[in-house]
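Give me the fold.
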Amino acid sequence: MTVPQRTSPRIVLVHTITFKQARALAPALVPLAAATGIGGGRWTLVTAVVGVTLVSLGTAVLSWWRFSYVDAPGAVVVTRGLVTRSERTVPKDRIRGVEVEAPPLHRVFGLVRLRVDAAAGAVAGKDEELLIDGLPRAEGERLRGAVLTSRVRAPAPDDAAPAEPAEPAEPAEPAEPAEEEFARFDSRWLLYAPLVGGYLAVPLAGVGALFRLAQELPRDVVPDLVGVRTDDARVIAAALLVALLLLVAGAVVGAAVVNWRFRLVRRGGSLIAVRGLLTRLHTELEVDRIRGVALAEGAGMRLVRAARVTALVTGLGDAQRRGQLLPLGPRAEAWSLTRRLVPDPGPLVPHPPAARRRRLVRAVSAGAGVTVVGAVVTAAFGWWPVLVVGVVLTALGVPLGLGRYAALGHATGPRSFAVRSGWLVREQAVLERRAVVGWQVRQSVFQRRAGVATVTACVGAGRGGYAAVDMAAGDVAGFAEAASEPWAATFRAAS
């Protein structure tokens, strides 16, 4: 299909209702309305609503009319622009992932939008490489499969020509690739959500918005709290309990909305993740471009042995969201999924005692400083609370430092390696050896005195580099050679 195609005209209604294009004109229209001295009143409000709706409709129609896409055999071409025309071409062999998104209003009109990630350079000010908004659902599914298909190779010519022309064969129906399920979200896993900071952020923001709204409401609307003692311990405890229940319920509901009916399957050479209650997301990643997996455990998640898994894919933008393979689940389930995608390099090797000393010194230094200040203040003025705070912080720094040291580790295997670090969010990256494109070693003055170093594996996936922090300096060269291709042997010779 090389003829330019337009999206469904139904997208005009979606963009009109959501004021998608008209929102860009708001910064210019608001000062204009203020300068012309438009007053209040019912008819003024009606006129403003009608005018904004007409502007939204007009800009939506023009945007739809001036947008087209071409699904060529070797590339996807998108042309857009009202005044300045732009044409974007993305080769199919550069495409790293495809995401089909169906927000609630799109689902009402039977539409989807397609996001394409490609290693073809970023576009300034854009989050996605390519966006086609307003495709019918069937066309979106067809285009999703087409953009990840490898270019058709021409058949090799035969040296000997056939004596007689072969009879034309009946066209065979393309076989549907077998589907293998890798993971499925269990509704019981939603109970982990209150222990994840990301899911708590939404209800916290909602509570803050409610407090701000309550301050703006008229006094005759706000309930009369006369007679309620706000200094009563029971009232405070009840308020805290209600707030805690709201946060827990909000985190669970938020996790359910995002991960509803999450399912990860392998179909042919692709991993496909589907999730979402209001907005259904269909993300497809090529298995051949997956270079590793990152398994993350927050401090709260470690208490209940939960984790999340993200794929490290070459050239994939917004990897934390689009590369998500298991949004939340038991640690055993996360490790089972990890081993299906990347070979297990074996158990982690702990870092030397010097790394533990460095973690402890860093953890207790702040508390020790406050303790010294508190001792001076207590001796000079008799004011002891600062001293108590310093002692408590110093005592708490000991388990904190030990926990940070326990998070460190590295491992190497025949085909993969692993590094782990972090305390508030402990992350273990398991990477294939072929993912490494370079090594970087850093040694501060204090690290040199302690005989340790930080070695970073530079990869073209995920966040670009994964570090083994405070490894024994004598083990750096051997680790780099064992964790990458044979070219890293030169690193040993140069070290």
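The CA atoms of residues 156 and 162 lie 14 Å apart.
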